[in-house]
Structure formats: C-alpha cells, structure tokens
C-alpha cells in the first residue's frame, strides 16, 4: 500500500521543499568544486586542456551527421564549462589565459641553459 495521501497538502509541500533544498545543496557543492579547481594553477591547466579539447569557437559541421552530432556535444560541454567559470570565478579565467600565454611563450623560447639564467 502506498504512503501517498493526496489530501495531505502540508506533507506534499514539506516534501517538495525538502527536495528543493537537497537539489540546491548539490548545486552549491558543484559550484564550490569548480571554484576550487580554478583556484590552483594545476586545476586551471586542466580546465584549459578541457576547453582546448572541446573547441567552442569552431564549427561542428562534418559531412557525416553522426560526427557532427558528436562534435556538437563536445562543443556544448565546452560552452557549459566556460559559462560556469564565467558565472562563478571570471577572474580565475583571466589568470588561466595569462598562464597559458606565458607557458606557450616559454615553450617557444626553448630550454634555457644555465649560462643564460
């Protein structure tokens, strides 16, 4: 026998409120996790790699419709991640971009010998 009582409006509202609070707590945890990840250089490097693997500024079109659908899914993940970063910690995004630029410049310069340091 079911515990559901359609006439128990107060009980239904209490269960709905509890469900909303649980969903909100889960969302807050995910938000804190993204901020934590972007708070360190290693995390920003990982996020930069994710954004590079999921190109949001390139076309998804391919002659094969299934490839297009796959690429569009990858692109959507990149757009979601960038949107979350922009919403939660935009200053860390700027830091990440600076670090990526500096890392590319260091690789382009090549290894330094001790005589130049």
Can you describe what's shown?
The chain is mostly helical and 117 residues long. The protein has one domain (20-101). Helices cover 74% and strands 0% of the residues. It has 4 helices and no strands. Helix 2 (41-53) runs antiparallel to helix 3 (65-88), helix 2 crosses helix 4 and helix 3 packs across helix 4. The chain is elongated, with a radius of gyration of 23 Å. The protein starts with 8 loop residues before the first helix and ends in an 8-residue tail after the last helix.
Compute the CA-based radius of gyration: 23 Å
Q: What's the SSE pattern? A: HHHH
Using DSSP, what is the number of strands? 0
Low-pLDDT sequence parts: none
What proportion of the residues is helical, as a percent range?
Answer: over 70%
Please state the oligomeric state of the protein chains shown. Answer: single chain
Distance between the termini: 79 Å
The helix count comes to 4
Secondary-structure-based class equals mainly alpha
Question: Strand portion, in percent?
Answer: under 5%
- The tally of domains stands at 1
Main beta-sheet strand count, sense and barrel state: none
What is the general shape?
elongated
Q: What is the mean predicted local confidence, pLDDT?
A: 88
Outline:
By secondary structure, the chain is mostly helical. 74% of the residues lie in helices and 0% in strands.
Keyphrases for this structure?
mainly alpha, single chain, 117 residues
């Amino acid at each position: 026998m079911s515990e559901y009582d359609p006439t128990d409006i107060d009980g239904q509202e209490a269960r709905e409120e509890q469900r909303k609070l649980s969903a909100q707590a889960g969302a807050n945890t995910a938000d804190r996790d993204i901020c934590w990840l972007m708070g360190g250089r290693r995390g920003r490097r990982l996020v930069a790699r994710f954004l590079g693997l999921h190109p949001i500024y390139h076309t998804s079109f391919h002659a094969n419709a299934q490839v297009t659908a796959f690429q569009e899914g990858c692109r959507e993940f990149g757009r979601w991640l960038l949107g979350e970063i922009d919403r939660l910690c935009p200053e860390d995004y700027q830091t990440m971009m600076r670090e990526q630029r500096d890392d590319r410049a260091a690789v382009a310069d090549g290894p330094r010998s001790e005589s130049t340091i």
